[in-house]
Amino acid sequence: MTDREPLGEMEYKKSFGQRLLAQLIRKYESSKAFASGEPVKQKPQVSFANGPFQVEYEDEMDFRKKEWIHEVIESLATQGIVTVKWERFLEGRQLAKVYLEPDRIKAAYELAGVTPRGKKMERLRNILATLDHHPWEWVAQWAREAVSALVERKSAGLDLDDSEGYELLADVLRELPKLEDNIPKRVLSHRLFQNTKTFERLVERRLVHLVQTRSGIEFDSDADALESIGISDQPRSVWIAGTLRCSIGSDKFSLAMFPGGIGLSRDTVCLLTIDEIEGERIVLIENLTSWHQWVKERQGANEIVVYTGGFPNRTVQQLLHKLGDYLHVDSRGEGRRSGAVGRLPVYHWGDMDAGGIQIFEFLRTHFFPELKPLGMDEQSFLRNVHTGMDFGRSYENRLKEMLASERFDRWHSLLNLMLLHGKRIEQESMAIPAENFG
Fold first, then answer.
1. Which among 83, 113, 127, 348 has most CB atoms closer than 10 A?
2. pLDDT tier at 1 (50, 70, 90 boundaries)?
3. Residues 319, 325, 328, 330: is their CA dihedral positive or negative?
4. Which bin fits 261, alpha (ψ -120 to 50), beta or left (φ > 0)?
5. From CA 193, how far away is CA 182, in angstroms rounded?
């Protein structure tokens, strides 16, 4: 026997003991008793006849493993952490099963070097509870639901082994509502974590998933999802055309000077003052191709046309805020008229799909309470259904969830048509629906 063999034995015994206890702990933590906090009715167990350790236990190439395993288990049994069942007539020679003693679970955790699942849940509860009153309701709702599940000892789809990642995520979520402008990923990362790559490595994937699944909006890409909450590496302009008189400082101009419309940067929008809306209506359009089509075909129309870019980014939102404020200020300029409809109607033309409906509701809720759908009705759907795109079971379930939500009551007829035909329609496949103006 060389000098290294005893060390190998010690290492193996330590490793096996930790792996065995970790396996028993996993079974305990996945049991109904752990979830309910009630006494264990059936002790967690590991079989050596067909369990995870069978191969190394029966390793004929190294008979010492069986001896070492026996010694480890006998030591644990002496400490009262496990109890042992031997094969009949083979006591001390052939293991059948090993059981974890629930009243010694604390010692099992310590020897296994495993953090108790309950402590992991408590740690996550404390982190997510800081988002309980987040200014974005969908974030606050997600946090409240997660905390509630953790209190009930349910994982709620969370990675209990990554409390650090959720702490970083919470830091980002608390920071975003404070931003007045879009911020590049790496600038945000350096500001919060003093490292330009921490956000991309440890936060971005989880944040995108949260936005996609909880914000109530369907985004075509991860970049669009991030931009919706103010994270964008490239500044975006907002495209607008029509009869709008504006000023920046003492300089006045009219957008009618630009027959094909114009792109306004974030800085320009921030400095912009709306002096007069001369048109008969405002039209918001979800997709850029359709916006260009509209502006080209209706050049000279007495209206204002804004491209929202799907879910509106912060530059678009800033402009929409200014338009909404103008519409709802009384004729004397003394503030908003309570419940006022505004001076002229505002329409939105978007996709006839889940995302298009959700974008409409966002615009109505945040900017224009009397917003009217344009080309997003049952007749438009039936007229264009031949251009529609098929969808699968998960999308069908999503539409059914929308049907069950009071938020989408006005859309029940359209949602039912989508389900009936199994189609969703993108506005690029449709002609402009100007005939639907009411």
1. 348
2. very low
3. negative
4. left
5. 18
